Model the fold of this input.
Amino acid sequence: MKKVLIKFGLGIAMVGVFSGCTENFDELNTDPLALDIGALEESQVLQGQAYAQAQYVSVNGLHWRFQISQNLFSDIWAQYYATTAAGFDSDRYVQVGRWADLAWGSFYGQAAPQIKLVEDLSEANGNQVGNAMAKILRVHAYHRITDYWGPIPYSAFGNGELSVPYDSQQAIYDDFFTTLDEAVSQLSGGGSSYAGSDRVYGGNAASWQTFANSLRLRLAMRIRYADPGKAQTEAEKAVSAGVMTDNSQNAYVSVDDINRNPLETITDWGEFRMSATMESILEGYGDPRMPEYFAPAADGDSDGDGSPYEGLLNGQTKVDLETSKNAGHSDLATKFIDVAKGGTNPPIEIMNAAEMYFLRAEGALQGWSMGGSAQSLYEDGIRASMTEKTGADAAAIDGYIASTSVPVAFEPGAMPVTDIPVAFAADPETQFEQIMTQKWLAIYPNGWEAWAELRRTGYPKQYARVQSENPDVAVDEIMRRMVYVQSEFDTNGEAVQAAIGGTELGGADKNNTKLWWDKK
Done:
């Protein structure tokens, strides 16, 4: 069998991916830079299997990869959860170097090589639909990484050199839109590819086209403050071409007994609980999604506010966390927990119709052509989320939409996190806060996306942390980006130093340096 050596030029495979855990020793010590792809070149079935694995690993499906990439960073910085483990400093705004190294290595050592492999082989074999699917997956995967770090190796990944230069985030986003143009064109004739392996849409070209349009809308809105003209053009283009409008179009990465939803495992470890911000908002609104997202605290209504759902302030001190907070605060809802304890191992959601409605509502606030008014799109977004996440009937949903209830204090003596009702307000800034708050609720538990939107817009409002151990980010401020990882300085040092010292990053390599699109 022919062997092909593919050099990806990032020295992260053998450096910076070791942890104290040993269960993945064989995987971590397998060099992904030398791949036996003879059979892959000739078999769409094997390419499809590689594509399926790329889908799963690009959203950090494996439990430990998910924990160190998302749960310990963006999930808690977006204040979906608060950490209850004393040694988890990231909730006190410390970017723990070993975790960040593993997160970077998980992408560039696992996801990126597989995506490139399938994209290159599908192009070589004339598989237009499969190639388009690979391109769309590349855009989705890389936008998550650049939204964590800013400038990253992108266009030169796979250059066969020992040094891989960094692209500016603006250049990366420009290429995203060009790549989506190419992919949509390739999908225009319909058809399917990798049907037996595709974990999201079963290889259906039309569904992937809708996802590509929806991804374009997400990325267009991301750059609204950095490049308003391009943002409007791309957003209107996406809506005109057709974005998700129904929950049947939602994008989930399917799971199985081997490739599981990572929450199903990490909830067993008992290291996080519902945040105080989440309690304030869901409880104040009497939100039907509360029991779908979280469980009543084991100790019940411990603070006497009349509700058994209890949230925890982020940034608890190590001393306070020496006394367990788990029993007094809400764990995740049953469906997210271990199957052996009644969980359901749900698929991993990466995009839903509700998000599209809220993005369109934001665009409509700017006077863009979004196919409806800001209010109607906002209300449709709530309906889509309620229909997807709950069993609420139409009358209950309409009652929620018209509600003047506001968030409440998460415990006696505290203040509510904000004062906005669900019912659409009259002034534009309050409307914007409402849109973003409801979007934050609707895309749960996608903390990766929620943290990006928090940085971009400042919403939803958050409680200040109890403590920050980061001199660059105060308790009432937002972490703006991840700093570059040690393995890159060790193995790709010239390139990362050039990105920091040049114009790509636009500031110091610190957690308070804003990304290119973070301009509000």
In short: The CA atoms of residues 301 and 308 lie 4 Å apart.
